[in-house]
């Protein structure tokens, strides 16, 4: 695992299970001191260059996802691993993305991540780290789109003046700048919370949601500023436009990553969910109830509409 260059790939997504991780079909069965792995993973980034994979597999079909899945570290040169072709995607084409098939792949017991049955929770909590990383890359693309559009607007002239002097263009650039800075600060908040040893689930989800949306919107506005030139491959913004979309899909679709939407969905499905559930206490203390809800959903493999706020364990005073 330490052989240079070290490249890892994260194997969770499957042909029939993207955002719905609980429905993965890859199986691992214990056989002596090894686990035998069978299944197919899809859209796996770095698959063609990886030294090893993290693979999430179902190990106990009698248990819900929160207690029936296990994470494994699988060496990429293990017999039984087959790589699909490198996918040609709309954007970010330098990314080596492939399908990976595991057929009777033997994995040593010591390659279990954590303990058997805890893989789903490990995979979900990994988002606290990966979402800020994805969000930071999205902010970088948004910033690049803003800079390219601003530079072009300063030099391109219509009606005798640079187009940046036209109010419609200036307003687009202003919106791009505002959203980029807002997303950047939220990414910093998510990263700072993690570095400070605090739980950052809330801010990681918010940063991913806003930054990915900003990347797409900024790239789109940059094409608008460039006009017809923005549709041409000789100019940089058409690539930014293509590259931006994946940020809304990385680490769970952006419309499913926002914790506010999770709360609102439960409120819609369960009338006993009070509006004030998470508004008590100053500052970040109000997030304690939300974190408890996340943990409750993970522990009980809850589907929307089947949970009451009264079922969520809370400490006295919260």
TrEMBL record:
Cofactors required: FAD
Gene3D superfamilies documented for this protein: Butyryl-CoA Dehydrogenase, subunit A, domain 2 (2.40.110.10), Butyryl-CoA Dehydrogenase, subunit A, domain 3 (1.20.140.10)
InterPro entries: Acyl-CoA_dehydrogenase, Acyl-CoA_DH_CS, Acyl-CoA_Oxase/DH_mid-dom, Acyl-CoA_Oxase/DH_mid-dom_sf, AcylCo_DH-like_C, AcylCo_DH/oxidase_C, AcylCoA_DH/oxidase_NM_dom_sf
Gene Ontology MF terms: medium-chain fatty acyl-CoA dehydrogenase activity
Top-level lineage group: Eukaryota
Coiled-coil boundaries: none
Pfam families, per database record: Acyl-CoA_dh_1 (PF00441), Acyl-CoA_dh_M (PF02770)
Protein name per UniProt: Medium-chain specific acyl-CoA dehydrogenase, mitochondrial
Keywords assigned by UniProt, alphabetized: FAD, Flavoprotein, Oxidoreductase
Listed GO CC annotations: mitochondrion
Domain Acyl-CoA dehydrogenase/oxidase C-terminal positions: 117-251
Keyword Lipoprotein: no
Organism: Ceratobasidium theobromae
Organism classification: Eukaryota, Fungi, Dikarya, Basidiomycota, Agaricomycotina
UniProt record, GO biological process: medium-chain fatty acid catabolic process
Domain Acyl-CoA oxidase/dehydrogenase middle positions: 9-105
Family: Belongs to the acyl-CoA dehydrogenase family.
